[in-house]
Every structure is written in structure tokens, then in C-alpha cells.
Write a structure and sequence with these properties.
Blueprint (H helix, E strand, L loop, with lengths): L1 H15 L7 E5 L7 H15 L7 E5 L10 H7 L4 E4 L23 H13 L10 E8 L4 E4 L14 E4 L2 H9 L3 E4 L5 H6 L5 E4 L1 H6 L8 E4 L6 E7 H5 L3 H9 L3 H25 L3 E4 L2 H10 L3 H7 L4 H15 L2
Parallel strand pairs: 1-2, 1-3, 6-7, 6-8, 9-11
Antiparallel strand pairs: 3-10, 4-10, 5-8, 5-9
Helix pairs in contact: 4-10, 4-13, 12-13
Amino acid sequence: MFNRLLTAAATALILTAPALEAREMRVSSFEPAQGFYSSKVLQPWIEQVNAKLSEGNAFKLYPGSILGAPPAQAELVKAGVADVALVVPTYTPGLFPLSGVVEVPGLVETGAKGADILNTLAEEGALDAEYADYKVIAVFTTPSYRFLMADKAVHVPADLDGLKLRSPSKFGSELFGMAGASGVGIPAPQVYENLERGVVAGAVWVMDAYRTFRLNEVAPNVTNTKFIAQPMAVLMNKGAYDSLPDADKAVIDEMSGRATAEWIASVVDETDASNEAAFRDAGEVTFIDLTDEEKAAWDAAFAGAADAWVKGQPDPAAAAAALDRARAVAGE
């Protein structure tokens, strides 16, 4: 009798014990579904992870700013509106200050080098505070930005005097000021319209955005400068991660960190090069490749940029240390 009672009690406990619920996890992208990061980075990552997750658990892409505007992505993840999101750290000044070191002109040329810099800083603990609220899937960067101009080809900084340009960040606007231009904050999906209407004379961006947002139609002059790179991150809600079975956490861990950032960087760099080659072959875009003299003019215009970046950070000492480390990695 006693054994039957124990068996019945154990069965009741099993039936009433809380189970880890299977769920769909939302991955937010401010790009359209066919956009570069949506189609070439996030969706392949989702497919690789979903293939190994427990039955019923799966990530799903929500592209085109369905869940929120580009600057809101980090907050969407923190609040649990999105479980994972593509985040541009410099869209939210002050939240991810040291990640912005890659905006110092001339520091980053390729996505591979940018990913090396940010992952080195992350592995050494320099970025712990700014990503404390998130499970970090990957930190990486764009290749160096180019000037994309509507009507006026740009060769030297003086060509920008008096112009308004779409700025990628607060510090980007400060850099424009060093060249006599001014920055205007415009969300990525609205850049085409503002170029077409003449609200801005140009933008600084990379070739994948140039193709994704069809900017070749309204900004056919591309100047190849090593202006700045932009930090990027794929971040996950900590609670969503912690709620998963250990086996699923292990899958996500395997698809996070430096190796994932290096994979993203390789896709970014290959796409940047292939897009440039395709636009050059089509002959519908004018590429301006700088002479040594013109490069020297850009270097002179931004000579004070590194000091300005350090002074503009909430902790200048930490910023100076991050910049020194980034320069060391860039030179390796």
C-alpha cells in the first residue's frame, strides 16, 4: 500500500512539475529580408542553430524593423521584445562607448581587422561593462566606410565644405565638422529618400548597404577612403538564454564568440569586394581612388580625431587604454 502511494505521488509530481516550454524566439533586423545582414548573416545563423536545438525551440527572423526602429534594437533585446537583434552600438550614444573605438579614422580597413580588435577587447574584459545586460552572440565591424555622393565627387576634405551628410553616429558628425561639413541623423531605410530629395548631399557607408538600399540610383559617386568603420553586434536577451535547456545553451555558445565574428567578417569582406567589382564592371557608378597627395589631405584633416574620441568618452582613461590596445591589434 505504502509503495503504491509513493508511486502515485511520484507520478503526480512528474505530471505537475513545471516543464521548459518550447518557444519561438524572435530575431530582429532593421534591414529588409533581402538585405545583406538579414539574408547573409542572421538567416544562415538561425538555420544553423535551429538544426541543433531541442524540438520546438527555434529562432525566427523578424526583418524590416517590424519589432522596432534601428536605434531601438538594443533596448528591444534588453526588454525582451526581441530575443536576439542586430545592433549598431553607436546608434545609442553612451550605451556601448568603447565599442566605438573602431570609428577612429584609419584604424580599421577590413571587417576581419575590426572583428579582431573588438573580440580582443571583449576577451580581455574591456567590453564587459557595456554588454553586461546581454548574451553576446558576436561583436564585429563593417569594413571602412566610403563617401557616397549624389552630385559632387569628393577627392579631398575641402570638397565637403558646407555640405550636409548622413551621419552614422554622433562621433561621425564630429568628424564631418573637422572637414567643414555637418552630419544629419537618418535611419538606414530613409537614406535613399533623403538623398533623392537633396536633404543631404551624401552619406558614408559600405557597399552592402549601397546595394541593399539601392543608393547607386541616387548617389553614383563613391570615394574610397578609410574614413571610419562601424561597430556591429548580435545580442541576445539574457533571460531568454538562461531559460533554455543546457543543451540548447551549448548550441548557442558554440555559435557565439570570436569564431562566429570571424565568419561574419569573412562574409562582410567578401561581399564588400564583390559588390564593388560588380558596380565597377557595370560602369554606372564613378569610383574615386585617392592619390597619395589626396590621402595625405584626409590624414591631416582628421589628425585630431583620436584625441577627440578619447576626450568624448565617459571614462577617458579606459578609452585611451582601449585605443592603445586597438592600435596594437591593428598593427599585428
